[in-house]
Amino acid sequence: MRIAIQGEPGSFSHEAALKLVPGATIVPCTLSAEVFATLAEEKADAAVIPIENSLAGSVSEHFDLLLTHDVKVEQETLLRIRHNLIAIPGAVTGEIDRVFSHPVALAQCRRFLAEHPRMEAFAFYDTAGSVKQLVELRDRHAAAIASAAAAEHYGAEVLKAGIEDNPENFTRFFLVRRAADSKPDPASNKISLAFSVENRPGSLVAVLNELAALGTNLTKIESRPVHGKPWEYIFYVDCQIKSSGEGSRALEALGRHCAMVKELGRYQEASL
Questions:
Q1: Predicted TM-score of the model (pTM)
Q2: Which residues are catalytic?
């Protein structure tokens, strides 16, 4: 299976993709929008995207892309994020004066960077991409923050492992396929939905009451602005369901109160 990811080989998305589909062929993309375009143009069979981090929160752009593309979430997985200081072979920590990585990774390693004031942090588009650049430049005074898999993939070395501030650092990833190719999992126990409500008092409460009446367990709710319509919002929810049929009843119930409802996917909930 060809799986599109945002980032370079060796990234956390690459690791998550192989966890979901062992032996998959990775199709790296620079931008998230390119991932969805690659999937839509059938240059990939599926995509793996990060949707939420336990420390940094949701990846808002990916919610927007799920809504605007004809795709379905088929699986989810949780990946423990371990950040490492990586350099070219032969470099030593005391010589490092520049560190490159994705802005989220840099933010999750603030304590380590504060303890090493000589190291100046620079944002880069991708964690694994920062290691790739490092190896290409062969600069002994530069380092990257990325996964151990990235160091191995590009022939770099881990100078310091586990430099993240908080070890309870997990990212939730979705496996996404074109809606026409998606096959619902009969063992699904979770559903992701997007909906908008009428701009009148109590409309959101009515929707949440409908979900509660069905016995579904709401595990996440988030709002996103509607582009081009100031002060209007799309709500995204995740619900635990007892059966796939309960998901269908939730969709039907929401349809009575919502201006728009879209099922983003039904799948089995991931566990640590």
A1: 0.92
A2: 171, 173
